[in-house]
Structure formats: C-alpha cells, structure tokens
Amino acid sequence: MDEKNIFNFLKYHEIPYHVYEHQPVFTVNDIPVVTAIDGVPTSGKIPEPHFKTLFLRDKKGAFFLVSVTDEKRVDITALSRVLGGDRLSFGKPDQLLDLLKLTPGSVTPYGLLFDAEKKVRFALDEDALSAAWVSFHPMRNDMTLVTTPQDFLVCMEKLGHTPQIVGIQVK
Fold first, then answer.
1. Which residue range(s) make up the domain with 139?
2. Does residue 171 surpass a pLDDT of 70?
3. Those residues with Cβ within 8 angstroms of residue 25's Cβ, 6 or more apart along the chain or in another chain
4. Is the N end or the C end of the chain the one with fewer CB atoms within 10 Å?
C-alpha cells in the first residue's frame, strides 16, 4: 500500500512519528477509537488539535492542498485571496487520485510524496505551528500519523513542498 512509502520516507530521513491505529474515519466529525499506538494494542486518544485537509483547484486549473485545524469552517472566498487562486472550488476525486494517489476520506499532506512535478501548492494553517502535535492520515483513514509541527515541516521540506503558512479565515 502507498502508506509504506511515507513510512519509509520518514524513517530514511529520521523524522520521528507515532502511529495511532483506529477504525476508518471519513470526516473530522468521526471520532476515532484508538486500538493501538505504534503497533502496541491500547486505547487512548489522538493528541489534539486534529486537522482536516482540503483538496482544491481554481478556475485556471491550479491545485491546492490546505490543512487546517478541524474546528475551523473555511471561508473559501477569503482563502482564494490569501492563496492567490482564482475562485477556488473542491478538486475532483480523479484529479486527487492522479496527482496525490489519494481518495476522498483519506486526504493528507503526505500525498505530496507523489507530486513529483510539484503541481499542487500546499498551505498550512498558522495555528499548527503553536500546537504540540500535528496529526494527519498516512495515506489511509484507519491510521493517524502524529508528529511535532517542527518535524512535520522538515518532512514537507524534504518532500519539496514547504507549506505556505496562512491565517485561515473562518466563516
């Protein structure tokens, strides 16, 4: 599976992380029931804040991946201005699969591993930088990969997708 690629990438670059296993979750409203942490059976909670990632495109065909804390309801019009996109809307599932090898319900910045041509711009909510942890799916929605914001930024830089840090306007 594709998640092995990101785990191999993290290990190769010595980027520390923890893996929380849980039932599949499809939206930020689904509450994961943790069954293991780093392969050890246990219960527990995934550290907050939780994040959602939006796959967007503009009317000119530019693609954007935007990760934001889950309690925020994103104002897409304001986000368009911040990112310099022209009328953002959600990207199509076939574009998501083609560019990032992802399907709806498992959208993650780690999919940028597959964007070798750098067709997708990545933006990260500035609130992530003040969090103790950031958490995203590792290419599948029955696991959550947790790391520090600093280690996450190192990972994105090594992927060649240093994020644009943005203040996300909420509706």
1. 3-166
2. no
3. 31, 32, 105, 141, 142
4. N
pLDDT computed for residue 28 by the predictor? 75
Q: Which residue has the tokens 């992802």?
A: 102
Does 126 reside within a domain? yes
Q: Is 16 a domain residue?
A: yes
Tell if the pTM clears 0.70, that is, is over it: yes
33: CATH: 3.90.960.10
Q: How confident is the model at residue 1 (pLDDT cuts 50, 70, 90)?
A: very low
Six token digits for residue 38? 């780093």
In a domain, 171, yes or no: no
Give CA–CA dist 131/148, Å, rounded. Answer: 8
Please say whether the beta carbons of 100 and 55 come within 8 A: yes
Q: What average pLDDT does the segment 148-152 reach? A: 98
Separation CA 171–CA 73 (nearest Å):
6
